[in-house]
Structure prediction request, 336 residues.
Amino acid sequence: MEISPFVMGLPKVELHLHIEGTLEPELKFELAQRNGITLPFDTPEQVRESYDFDDLTSFLHTYYDGMNVLRTSEDFYDLAMAYFAKVATQNLRYVEIFFDPQAHTSRGISFDTVISGLRRAQIEAEQKFGITSALIMCFLRDLQPEYAMATLLESLPYKHWILGVGLDSDENGNPPSKFAAVFARAKAEGYLLTMHCDIDIPGSIDHIETVIHEIGVARIDHGTNIVENPELVKTIVERGIGLTSCPISNTWVSEGTKVELVKQLMAEGVKVTINSDDPAYFGGYIAENFQRVADEGQVSDEFLAQLAHNAVDISWAPAVLKAELHGEIDQYLAQA
Prediction:
């Protein structure tokens, strides 16, 4: 995909990025060799060719299998630094990163191993690339809520490194209400709340209603099925609850990018943002996702800049940083 100079240079904020989903095949081979793991492929190209997802479940099978090469703190550091180096070339300025501790503790990797490697990369990326970041700890919804609660308690000594909590993995048969007590405890501990409401799954609109009215999330990940209920659209506009849409990943697990829904919701006042989700698997980082919106939606530079502003608005960044980022976007648009 050819990325326009405007899209490449636009100051960006990313709010829906799974760090485990940035594991490129080349790094996977490098880490496998480092850790004495034999992969069922001979080349990184063969790994890419094996990515043939047609729904969320088929993607998750490959996604979790790929994590097996992540064993040490250094591995998690290398994973995150590779992501930061990539998006530094796309003028990413701030990112709130999802990480899935249960995907690692369930296979014997300690919570400390995971978060210490990510934290070291965060500090270095700010110094080296000028990218500020924060961590959002996600619970795996296809595991027991008791395991999620135990993970929440395990995270408390690291609260100063974790901004909020989220809910991801296979949503089919795993409604948000299953984790209501976990999220209530997380909120009491001072964590901010978001949850995935995946696109075009059975019960999606009911899940969206639950996360708004019962869980009390500050934003919704994916969530464009909210168009099915105009009253809910009005509610999130009134409350300032934004959506983190991921156009390219949408094409792998559903029908199309949902760019037209993004445009519709924007016209109705919803703060929709553009993100990359699991870019190593879906074939597009944040600039590629913005370009997909530009190409398919035939939108103006001002529209793209508004998407960037939306991400600043619904981010959990400090007020001073938000003001700085808004200024960068405005100045960039004025000079474009």
Notes: Strands lie at 12-18, 92-99, 132-140, 162-168, 192-197, 219-222, 242-245, 272-274. The longest strand covers residues 132-140. Residues 111-129 form the longest helix (19 residues). The chain has a mean pLDDT of 96.
